[in-house]
Amino acid sequence: MKTSRKLLVIAGALSLMGWAHSAHSSPIDISGWTCEGNCGTSAADGDVTLSPFGSSEYGWISTANGIDTDGLGVGSETTGTTITSPLFQANQGDELNFFFNFVTSDGGGFTDYAWALLLDSNMEPTLQLFTARATPEGDTVPGFNLPEPDAEVSLNPAETPVIAGAPEWSPLGASSGTCWDDGCGYTDWIESSFSFDEAGTYALQFGVVNWSDEAFQSGLAFDGATIAGQDIGGDPTEVPLPATLALFLTGLVAMLGIRRKLTAR
Fold first, then answer.
1. Domains identified in the chain, total number
2. Residue 107 belongs to what domain range?
3. Is residue 114 within 8 Å of 190, Cβ to Cβ?
4. Has residue 248 been placed in a domain?
5. Fewer Cβ within 10 Å of end Cβ, the chain: N or C?
6. What pTM did the predictor assign?
């Protein structure tokens, strides 16, 4: 009986692990987000794989077919895209998490960049969550000559060189598979996290811009934007129990019934 109980516990743990993994298997939902420019969702595409978060699709923004924008206001921004989440509530100690992947076909002196900001209830910037910018030497994240992430923000990995080459990625439009000078490539997936010091109402914004010209496009993939483990901007949905977990629970109930009968005897 002891051996059977051990096997039952192990099977249950494996089933629960499978259930936890399946909880993020749906595509990202950006239907409630506000896009200014060119936004979309995609499954694994070219050099941009699915994120470690586990969604079947990630979100993306691109400078291809973007609009005029000041970006972070550094000085030579031309066109680009931003996407902003709906307002959400955060309590003290809640953790904000997301994954991102910066992709660029531009380089040399035309160094496009991307960013994420935490906005307050008036949609004004209150925290710099990351910056990413192509550079022939050194790291792409944090972005050179751009605002550093605020000290409270954790990036994993903390410093990221570009994976060099002409990136293949459909959101880049006609620039997919091309490269202008050193610095082209992608960062691969990076995780950003931040714990709130005080409660409040906030929004999350991602952006990407062309620099000095409107040629050779760049983009940003993002996924897993959560606050205290809950999706930002998506309607919470009940995740059904997978068949393996349901079977485990049925077996557990049956075992308890058998044990009661044996005890009664």
1. 1
2. 25-240
3. no
4. no
5. C
6. 0.81
